[in-house]
Amino acid sequence: MINAVYQLVAPRMIEVAYKEIDLTAGEVVMRPYKVSVCKADQRYYQGMRSPEALKAKLPMALTHECVAQVVYDPTGTYSVGDFVVPVPNTPTETDSVVAENYLRSSYFRSSGYDGFLQDFITAAPDRVVKLPSDMNMNVASFTELISVSVHAISRFDKIAHSRRNKIGIWGDGNVGYITALVMHYLYPETELYIFGTVEEKLSYFSFAKAAYHVDHVPEGISVDHAFECVGGGGCQPAINQIIDLINPEGTISLMGVSENNVGINTRMVLEKGLRLFGSSRSGVEDFAKAVELCSEHPRLVNYLDNLVGDVVRVESIPDIHRAFDLDYHRSFGKTVIDWAK
């Protein structure tokens, strides 16, 4: 079976590569249905990664956030027509200590390996999570991003001490919003404090106890633990403000990606006895938990629907470019591709 794969070959240049799918490999074959654009995809598409990284990763099909529909499953695990979420992280081994998304031997779709901009996707049955038939499919398209927050919070739950009265979340973008929402539904008794830089974005966090501009935080505000969801150039001041405002022996979850090294106030990290830990990507258990959360809490899905921005129907390569251009100029929310190829 011949498959068309829409690969980024250079910044802002997409070409079709034709690859064969082996129908005897025991994998589920799916058609993409809704695809969501991630900031990591944009960094490749816009050429914002280093020349070395681009040379090592390209050509490859972009996107790792997707809802797909099953068209063939020789194992009988799924039925034709089922809506599913393919998991982009693909481990090649198991480890009793290290999670699948941290194993250096694992590979990740749209990071050196073809992502989901293809006519058909294949995956092992255990790399696929079934969706409820009544799921909001635009929201489901970024289940991967929801699972990243679920993963970070599950790690926090194992690492942080038990006093969780007040938790701060730095970052008013998509990751901050989703992390705050998941935290709100997993820890409904905890007071959430949001710290950001754009008043309009902060207004979306209506479920939180309070939302503050980072330059106008009232005196006396402190938190027991914190999540840093800023990344980029804002990562350093965010982490250092967290260190200033967090209570002794608090835990800081680092989720924002920075291309450069970050300088932090290690003196106060030591004096306060703080714990800092990083989280990246997610595994199949986190996907299943994300889907379960959305199924159990319809209001959570309603809040997540606030993130759905442009929904672009893609029938040709120029449509892909249009979707990425629209997403590039979006400061908040997700661009969803209605994959009609």
CATH class group of the largest domain: Alpha Beta
In N-to-C order, the SSE pattern is EEEHHEEEEEEEHHEHEHEEHEHEHHEHE
The CATH topology of the largest domain: Quinone Oxidoreductase, Chain A, domain 1
Percent strand equals 25-35%
Number of domains: 2
Largest sheet: 7 strands, mixed
**Rg over alpha carbons:** 20 Å
Mean pLDDT: 96
Under CATH, the homologous superfamily of the largest domain reads Medium-chain alcohol dehydrogenases, catalytic domain
* Structural class by SSE content: alpha/beta
Helical residues, percent = 25-40%
- State the total count of DSSP E strands: 18
Apparent shape: globular
Secondary-structure arrangement, i.e. CATH architecture of the largest domain:
Alpha-Beta Complex
Distance N to C terminus: 16 Å
**Residue windows where pLDDT falls under 50 for at least 5 positions:** none
Number of helices: 11
